[in-house]
Amino acid sequence: VDTKLWNPDFIKIAEQIGLIKPLTEWILQTVCDQMAVWNSEGFSDIHTAVNISPDHFLDKGLVSLITETLETKGIAFNKLELEVTESTVQTNAQNLSAFQRLKDLGISVAIDDFGTGYSSFSSLKHMNVDILKIDKSFIDDILTDEKTQVLVSSMIRMGHNLGYKIIAEGIESHAQLQLLQQLQCDIGQGY
Q1: Taking the alpha carbons of 141, 145, 149, 151 in that order, is the dihedral positive or negative?
Q2: Entry pTM
């Protein structure tokens, strides 16, 4: 994505004007089309992540849309990861049910931008997710701020103890990568 064209308010605006659902459907179709191409070229072990808006995540038709799209394109369910923000992580029955239905299908669920929202330990206790993605804002300061190092180390240990894979977002230097490896972070993601 050309960062000059990217507006951080884009998703909020799409939600406000009612375009988030068709936009999500288009993105899901496009991603699955690309995955089908990769499969046909012999790259069937690629996992792909798609961000889902909190507003669309609880749409009753989302699970059906995902199921139909993956089946139509011949994509294995366990090759798709859905990323939702911390604001989606709540303990109400509707959220828990949506997470469970996706998990039952074999789809991975990640909590994106972890550490920046309002999730509580209670929410994490009830959520059935696979991955916590530590927000880039923590990684930016990890080399210069001791408190940030303690927080990231704690998030990694806590996540592992809860059975989650941990991804650090926004790694921009080799020194950041080395420190995260020492802290036993599972996966690093560039910016």
Answers
A1: negative
A2: 0.84
